[in-house]
Write a structure and sequence with these properties.
Layout: E1 3-7, H1 12-23, E2 27-32, E3 45-48, H2 54-60, E4 67-70, H3 78-81, H4 87-107, E5 112-118, H5 148-167, E6 170-176, E7 179-180, H6 193-203, E8 209-213, E9 219-220, E10 223-224, H7 225-236, E11 244-246, E12 252-253, H8 254-265, E13 270-274, H9 288-294, H10 302-320
Parallel strand pairs: 1-2, 1-4, 2-3, 4-5, 5-6, 6-11, 7-10, 8-13
Antiparallel strand pairs: 9-12
Protein backbone atom coordinates (compact mmCIF):
# COMPACT_ATOMS: atom_id res chain seq x y z
CA UNK A 1 0.00 0.00 0.00
CA UNK A 2 1.46 3.40 -0.96
CA UNK A 3 1.92 5.92 1.85
CA UNK A 4 1.64 9.70 1.99
CA UNK A 5 2.30 12.44 4.52
CA UNK A 6 0.16 15.59 4.43
CA UNK A 7 1.58 18.55 6.34
CA UNK A 8 -1.15 21.04 7.17
CA UNK A 9 -3.73 18.25 7.07
CA UNK A 10 -6.10 20.17 9.35
CA UNK A 11 -6.32 23.03 6.88
CA UNK A 12 -8.62 23.67 3.97
CA UNK A 13 -6.58 22.18 1.09
CA UNK A 14 -4.83 19.61 3.29
CA UNK A 15 -8.13 18.12 4.46
CA UNK A 16 -9.31 17.63 0.90
CA UNK A 17 -5.96 16.14 -0.14
CA UNK A 18 -6.18 13.56 2.68
CA UNK A 19 -9.65 12.58 1.49
CA UNK A 20 -8.45 12.22 -2.10
CA UNK A 21 -5.44 10.11 -1.13
CA UNK A 22 -7.64 7.78 0.92
CA UNK A 23 -9.98 7.38 -2.07
CA UNK A 24 -6.89 6.34 -4.07
CA UNK A 25 -5.89 3.63 -1.59
CA UNK A 26 -3.06 5.39 0.25
CA UNK A 27 -2.13 4.98 3.90
CA UNK A 28 -2.13 8.60 5.04
CA UNK A 29 -0.59 10.40 7.98
CA UNK A 30 -1.71 13.96 8.59
CA UNK A 31 -0.04 16.52 10.83
CA UNK A 32 -1.21 19.94 11.95
CA UNK A 33 -1.68 22.15 14.99
CA UNK A 34 -5.38 21.29 14.87
CA UNK A 35 -7.87 18.81 13.51
CA UNK A 36 -10.03 19.90 10.55
CA UNK A 37 -12.51 22.45 11.86
CA UNK A 38 -15.60 21.50 9.87
CA UNK A 39 -15.25 17.73 9.34
CA UNK A 40 -13.63 14.64 10.81
CA UNK A 41 -10.27 13.65 9.35
CA UNK A 42 -10.11 10.41 7.39
CA UNK A 43 -6.34 10.08 7.83
CA UNK A 44 -5.12 6.73 9.13
CA UNK A 45 -2.90 8.57 11.59
CA UNK A 46 -3.28 12.23 12.55
CA UNK A 47 -0.58 13.89 14.65
CA UNK A 48 -1.28 17.11 16.53
CA UNK A 49 2.13 18.72 16.35
CA UNK A 50 4.01 21.95 15.64
CA UNK A 51 6.14 21.62 12.53
CA UNK A 52 8.16 24.64 13.62
CA UNK A 53 9.83 22.21 16.05
CA UNK A 54 12.53 19.98 14.57
CA UNK A 55 11.78 17.13 16.96
CA UNK A 56 8.13 17.01 15.81
CA UNK A 57 9.19 16.84 12.16
CA UNK A 58 11.58 13.98 12.92
CA UNK A 59 8.88 12.08 14.78
CA UNK A 60 6.35 12.60 11.98
CA UNK A 61 8.78 11.66 9.19
CA UNK A 62 9.64 8.29 10.73
CA UNK A 63 9.66 6.36 7.47
CA UNK A 64 10.14 6.79 3.73
CA UNK A 65 6.79 8.06 2.44
CA UNK A 66 5.96 7.67 -1.24
CA UNK A 67 4.55 11.19 -1.41
CA UNK A 68 4.77 14.21 0.90
CA UNK A 69 2.47 17.21 0.49
CA UNK A 70 3.62 20.36 2.30
CA UNK A 71 0.71 22.79 2.75
CA UNK A 72 1.49 23.94 6.30
CA UNK A 73 1.96 27.72 6.54
CA UNK A 74 0.95 30.78 8.49
CA UNK A 75 -1.44 32.34 6.03
CA UNK A 76 -4.77 34.01 5.34
CA UNK A 77 -6.54 36.45 3.06
CA UNK A 78 -5.82 40.14 2.48
CA UNK A 79 -7.10 41.04 5.95
CA UNK A 80 -4.29 38.92 7.43
CA UNK A 81 -1.46 39.12 4.89
CA UNK A 82 -1.53 42.77 3.84
CA UNK A 83 -2.13 44.62 7.13
CA UNK A 84 1.56 44.48 8.12
CA UNK A 85 0.95 43.32 11.69
CA UNK A 86 1.64 39.63 10.98
CA UNK A 87 4.75 39.83 8.79
CA UNK A 88 7.28 38.58 11.35
CA UNK A 89 5.11 35.63 12.35
CA UNK A 90 4.35 34.76 8.73
CA UNK A 91 8.01 34.71 7.72
CA UNK A 92 9.34 33.01 10.85
CA UNK A 93 6.63 30.38 11.16
CA UNK A 94 6.38 29.37 7.51
CA UNK A 95 10.14 29.54 6.98
CA UNK A 96 10.77 27.34 10.03
CA UNK A 97 8.22 24.76 8.86
CA UNK A 98 9.80 24.43 5.42
CA UNK A 99 13.35 24.22 6.77
CA UNK A 100 12.36 21.51 9.24
CA UNK A 101 10.17 19.45 6.90
CA UNK A 102 12.79 19.38 4.16
CA UNK A 103 15.58 18.44 6.56
CA UNK A 104 13.53 15.61 8.08
CA UNK A 105 12.52 14.27 4.65
CA UNK A 106 16.09 14.40 3.33
CA UNK A 107 17.33 12.41 6.34
CA UNK A 108 14.69 9.72 5.77
CA UNK A 109 15.52 9.60 2.05
CA UNK A 110 12.03 10.75 1.12
CA UNK A 111 12.21 11.65 -2.55
CA UNK A 112 8.88 12.96 -3.79
CA UNK A 113 7.74 16.12 -2.01
CA UNK A 114 5.24 18.74 -3.15
CA UNK A 115 5.45 22.36 -1.96
CA UNK A 116 2.53 24.78 -2.20
CA UNK A 117 3.92 28.17 -3.14
CA UNK A 118 1.74 31.13 -4.06
CA UNK A 119 0.95 33.62 -6.81
CA UNK A 120 1.97 36.21 -4.21
CA UNK A 121 5.58 35.65 -5.31
CA UNK A 122 4.97 37.55 -8.55
CA UNK A 123 6.38 41.08 -8.84
CA UNK A 124 4.22 44.02 -7.89
CA UNK A 125 5.36 45.92 -11.02
CA UNK A 126 3.70 43.31 -13.28
CA UNK A 127 0.34 43.53 -11.52
CA UNK A 128 -0.47 47.25 -11.54
CA UNK A 129 -2.92 47.10 -14.46
CA UNK A 130 -6.05 45.20 -13.34
CA UNK A 131 -6.88 44.29 -16.94
CA UNK A 132 -3.44 43.01 -18.00
CA UNK A 133 -1.51 41.35 -15.16
CA UNK A 134 1.57 39.31 -16.05
CA UNK A 135 1.81 36.13 -13.99
CA UNK A 136 3.78 33.93 -16.38
CA UNK A 137 6.14 31.68 -14.43
CA UNK A 138 9.26 33.26 -15.92
CA UNK A 139 8.16 36.73 -14.80
CA UNK A 140 9.03 36.00 -11.14
CA UNK A 141 12.42 37.70 -11.44
CA UNK A 142 13.63 40.40 -10.86
CA UNK A 143 11.75 39.66 -7.64
CA UNK A 144 9.48 42.19 -5.98
CA UNK A 145 6.55 40.45 -4.23
CA UNK A 146 3.84 42.70 -2.81
CA UNK A 147 4.09 41.26 0.72
CA UNK A 148 6.41 39.50 3.14
CA UNK A 149 4.16 36.48 2.73
CA UNK A 150 5.23 36.47 -0.94
CA UNK A 151 8.90 36.91 -0.06
CA UNK A 152 8.80 33.91 2.29
CA UNK A 153 7.13 31.80 -0.39
CA UNK A 154 9.82 32.81 -2.90
CA UNK A 155 12.61 31.99 -0.42
CA UNK A 156 11.04 28.60 0.22
CA UNK A 157 10.82 27.88 -3.51
CA UNK A 158 14.59 28.47 -3.66
CA UNK A 159 15.06 26.24 -0.62
CA UNK A 160 13.15 23.32 -2.19
CA UNK A 161 14.99 23.75 -5.49
CA UNK A 162 18.34 23.68 -3.64
CA UNK A 163 17.39 20.36 -1.99
CA UNK A 164 16.35 19.12 -5.43
CA UNK A 165 19.79 19.96 -6.85
CA UNK A 166 21.97 18.99 -3.89
CA UNK A 167 20.14 15.96 -2.46
CA UNK A 168 18.36 14.52 -5.48
CA UNK A 169 14.90 15.09 -3.99
CA UNK A 170 12.04 14.91 -6.50
CA UNK A 171 10.64 18.31 -5.58
CA UNK A 172 7.43 19.61 -7.18
CA UNK A 173 6.40 23.27 -6.75
CA UNK A 174 3.09 24.91 -7.61
CA UNK A 175 2.12 28.56 -7.30
CA UNK A 176 -1.49 28.54 -6.14
CA UNK A 177 -3.92 31.23 -7.25
CA UNK A 178 -6.70 31.89 -4.72
CA UNK A 179 -8.06 28.45 -3.87
CA UNK A 180 -11.64 28.44 -2.54
CA UNK A 181 -14.53 26.16 -1.68
CA UNK A 182 -16.60 24.84 1.23
CA UNK A 183 -15.03 23.88 4.57
CA UNK A 184 -12.57 26.79 4.61
CA UNK A 185 -12.16 29.88 6.75
CA UNK A 186 -15.16 32.14 6.36
CA UNK A 187 -15.37 34.37 9.46
CA UNK A 188 -12.08 34.25 11.40
CA UNK A 189 -10.13 37.08 9.76
CA UNK A 190 -8.11 34.70 7.57
CA UNK A 191 -10.81 34.09 4.96
CA UNK A 192 -10.18 34.96 1.33
CA UNK A 193 -12.41 37.11 -0.83
CA UNK A 194 -14.84 34.43 -2.18
CA UNK A 195 -15.64 33.26 1.37
CA UNK A 196 -15.85 36.83 2.68
CA UNK A 197 -18.16 37.78 -0.18
CA UNK A 198 -20.40 34.77 0.42
CA UNK A 199 -20.56 35.55 4.15
CA UNK A 200 -21.43 39.21 3.67
CA UNK A 201 -24.16 38.43 1.16
CA UNK A 202 -25.57 35.54 3.19
CA UNK A 203 -25.83 37.82 6.24
CA UNK A 204 -27.35 40.79 4.39
CA UNK A 205 -31.02 41.42 3.83
CA UNK A 206 -32.20 41.74 0.25
CA UNK A 207 -32.09 45.40 -0.77
CA UNK A 208 -29.46 46.24 1.84
CA UNK A 209 -25.80 47.17 1.54
CA UNK A 210 -22.50 45.31 1.50
CA UNK A 211 -19.00 46.67 2.01
CA UNK A 212 -16.18 45.95 -0.45
CA UNK A 213 -12.55 46.88 0.14
CA UNK A 214 -11.21 49.21 -2.55
CA UNK A 215 -12.93 50.42 -5.70
CA UNK A 216 -14.02 46.93 -6.76
CA UNK A 217 -12.08 47.13 -10.01
CA UNK A 218 -9.14 45.07 -8.77
CA UNK A 219 -9.05 41.70 -10.52
CA UNK A 220 -8.36 38.11 -9.49
CA UNK A 221 -8.99 34.53 -10.56
CA UNK A 222 -10.20 31.80 -8.21
CA UNK A 223 -9.76 28.02 -8.39
CA UNK A 224 -12.14 25.52 -6.79
CA UNK A 225 -10.41 23.29 -4.25
CA UNK A 226 -11.16 19.94 -5.95
CA UNK A 227 -9.46 21.17 -9.12
CA UNK A 228 -6.51 22.39 -7.06
CA UNK A 229 -6.08 18.90 -5.59
CA UNK A 230 -6.35 17.32 -9.04
CA UNK A 231 -3.72 19.64 -10.56
CA UNK A 232 -1.47 19.17 -7.54
CA UNK A 233 -1.48 15.39 -7.84
CA UNK A 234 -0.86 15.48 -11.59
CA UNK A 235 2.18 17.69 -10.99
CA UNK A 236 3.43 15.65 -8.01
CA UNK A 237 3.31 12.38 -9.96
CA UNK A 238 4.88 13.86 -13.09
CA UNK A 239 8.57 14.07 -13.97
CA UNK A 240 8.56 17.88 -13.92
CA UNK A 241 9.65 20.04 -11.01
CA UNK A 242 8.07 23.41 -11.84
CA UNK A 243 7.48 25.97 -10.39
CA UNK A 244 4.17 26.23 -12.20
CA UNK A 245 0.89 28.07 -11.75
CA UNK A 246 -2.11 26.09 -10.53
CA UNK A 247 -5.11 28.34 -10.85
CA UNK A 248 -7.99 29.47 -13.02
CA UNK A 249 -7.59 31.94 -15.85
CA UNK A 250 -11.21 33.11 -15.55
CA UNK A 251 -10.36 36.62 -14.34
CA UNK A 252 -13.06 38.78 -12.72
CA UNK A 253 -13.14 42.07 -10.87
CA UNK A 254 -14.11 42.02 -7.21
CA UNK A 255 -17.31 43.85 -8.14
CA UNK A 256 -18.08 41.11 -10.68
CA UNK A 257 -17.39 38.48 -8.02
CA UNK A 258 -19.94 40.18 -5.77
CA UNK A 259 -22.48 40.29 -8.60
CA UNK A 260 -22.12 36.54 -9.26
CA UNK A 261 -22.62 35.68 -5.58
CA UNK A 262 -25.62 38.03 -5.33
CA UNK A 263 -27.17 36.32 -8.33
CA UNK A 264 -26.60 32.90 -6.74
CA UNK A 265 -28.16 34.15 -3.50
CA UNK A 266 -31.09 35.81 -5.27
CA UNK A 267 -30.32 39.12 -3.57
CA UNK A 268 -29.70 42.63 -4.85
CA UNK A 269 -27.43 44.69 -2.59
CA UNK A 270 -25.83 48.10 -2.93
CA UNK A 271 -22.04 47.85 -3.03
CA UNK A 272 -20.33 50.33 -0.69
CA UNK A 273 -16.62 50.68 -1.40
CA UNK A 274 -14.42 51.37 1.62
CA UNK A 275 -10.71 51.49 2.42
CA UNK A 276 -9.07 48.19 3.28
CA UNK A 277 -6.05 45.96 2.57
CA UNK A 278 -5.98 45.14 -1.13
CA UNK A 279 -2.78 43.57 -2.44
CA UNK A 280 -2.03 44.00 -6.14
CA UNK A 281 -4.41 45.64 -8.62
CA UNK A 282 -4.59 42.65 -10.95
CA UNK A 283 -3.75 38.94 -10.82
CA UNK A 284 -4.69 36.04 -13.08
CA UNK A 285 -3.27 32.55 -13.47
CA UNK A 286 -1.30 32.13 -16.67
CA UNK A 287 -1.98 28.46 -17.52
CA UNK A 288 -0.03 28.16 -20.77
CA UNK A 289 2.94 26.37 -19.21
CA UNK A 290 1.01 23.74 -17.19
CA UNK A 291 -1.22 23.00 -20.16
CA UNK A 292 1.84 22.55 -22.39
CA UNK A 293 3.84 20.41 -19.93
CA UNK A 294 1.09 18.40 -18.21
CA UNK A 295 -1.99 18.84 -20.39
CA UNK A 296 -3.96 20.16 -17.42
CA UNK A 297 -6.38 23.02 -17.16
CA UNK A 298 -9.40 23.71 -14.91
CA UNK A 299 -12.70 22.30 -16.13
CA UNK A 300 -15.20 24.01 -13.82
CA UNK A 301 -16.44 27.59 -14.06
CA UNK A 302 -16.11 30.07 -11.23
CA UNK A 303 -19.88 30.12 -10.81
CA UNK A 304 -20.06 26.34 -10.28
CA UNK A 305 -17.61 26.56 -7.41
CA UNK A 306 -19.28 29.62 -5.93
CA UNK A 307 -22.67 27.89 -5.92
CA UNK A 308 -21.28 25.12 -3.70
CA UNK A 309 -19.33 27.55 -1.53
CA UNK A 310 -22.26 29.91 -1.02
CA UNK A 311 -24.61 27.07 -0.06
CA UNK A 312 -22.15 25.90 2.61
CA UNK A 313 -21.42 29.38 4.00
CA UNK A 314 -25.11 30.26 4.05
CA UNK A 315 -25.63 27.15 6.19
CA UNK A 316 -22.81 28.24 8.56
CA UNK A 317 -24.31 31.71 8.88
CA UNK A 318 -27.70 30.19 9.67
CA UNK A 319 -26.21 27.88 12.31
CA UNK A 320 -24.24 30.68 13.95
CA UNK A 321 -27.40 32.77 14.28
CA UNK A 322 -29.22 30.09 16.29
Amino acid sequence: MPSALVCGAGGFIGTRMVEKLKEQGFWVRGVDLKYPEFSDTVADDFVIGDLREQIICRQVVDRKFDEVYQFAADMGGAGFVFVGDNDADIMHNSGSINLNVLDACAKRNVKRIFYSSSACIYPLYNQLDPDNPNCAEDSAYPANPDSDYGWEKLFSERLYLAYHRNYGMEVRIARYHNIFGPFGSWNDGREKSPAAMCRKIAMAKDGGEMEIWGDGKQTRSFLYVDECVEGTQILTRSNWTGPVNIGSDEMVSIDQLADIVMDIAGKKLTKVHIEGPLGVRGRNSDNRLIEKELGWRPSKSLREGLEKTYAWIEEQVRKSAL
